[in-house]
Amino acid sequence: MGMEKVSGERKKRRMRQKKVTAVQKLYDTCTEVFADCGPGVIPNAEGIERLKDILNGMTEVDVGVRPNMPYFKLKEIGGFPKITYLHLCECDKFSIGIFLLPPSGVLPLHNHPQMTVFSKLLFGTMHIKAYDWVDDAALISTPKPDSSEGDVGVRLAKLKVNSEFTAPCNASILYPTDGGNMHCFTAMTSCAVLDVLGPPYCDPEGRHCQYYRTHPFMDLSETDDEKKLPEGEKIESYAWLEEIDKPKGLSVIGAMYSGPKIIEKLAF
């Protein structure tokens, strides 16, 4: 009986060692969900639900991050606290990474061209403001409120999200043309955000990160026609977005990921 008990304990130990980690399960599921996707192609509903379920159940422990890490004590650079990015993996179909934002850290308003993005706040409180382009809204040139600065090229967008989120909370999803494709993150406390991008940014393929400056809807709307909105819509729900260069002082620093390892597939 004693030998049988020892053998059973060894078997249980081996089974625990072989248990798939949450981050490995996330990677394996991404390889399946994004396999037939590409720029502008959204995973099917079943795949989206699979990824949501995995992310909703993940915590900071699953990726080895915690609020007392030194990354959350970085000094400000030109008004922006430094942000750290932990790279987990990337292929031509998707990427997985973690943004670590110290208190008051800001990822300015930026886009995700032709991407489906899953974001999971692992800990902390964060304010998210997100926009989608208004259907068929074309880029226009219009005078700034301060006419001495000349004209500015802007495009009309509608506010999709403007709220604070506190972990634990479910993952959020944005799509190529819906869900708040252009968003801004502002950390109210130390925050960690697990991101899955499908496909990832790729400059040669035209998927680069574009930053924006917002202008109030009324400031750049000069004609009565431009001021008209659909019935029941509020002016505060719309804004003009102007493309800008990467904000000065914004610093996103790469750091080594030290959480549970991911065993990547050579090809899929």
From TrEMBL:
It catalyses: L-cysteine + O2 = 3-sulfino-L-alanine + H(+). Keywords: Iron, Metal-binding, Oxidoreductase. CDD domains: cupin_ADO. InterPro entries: PCO/ADO (IPR012864), RmlC-like_jellyroll (IPR014710), RmlC_Cupin_sf (IPR011051). SUPFAM superfamilies: RmlC-like cupins. One of its GO terms (molecular function) is metal ion binding. Its cofactor is Fe(2+). It holds the Pfam family PCO_ADO. It is an enzyme of class 1 (oxidoreductase). One of its GO terms (biological process) is detection of hypoxia. Signal peptide: none annotated. Its EC number is 1.13.11.20. PANTHER family: 2-AMINOETHANETHIOL DIOXYGENASE, PLANT CYSTEINE OXIDASE 1. Belongs to the cysteine dioxygenase family. This is cysteine dioxygenase. It comes from Lactuca virosa.
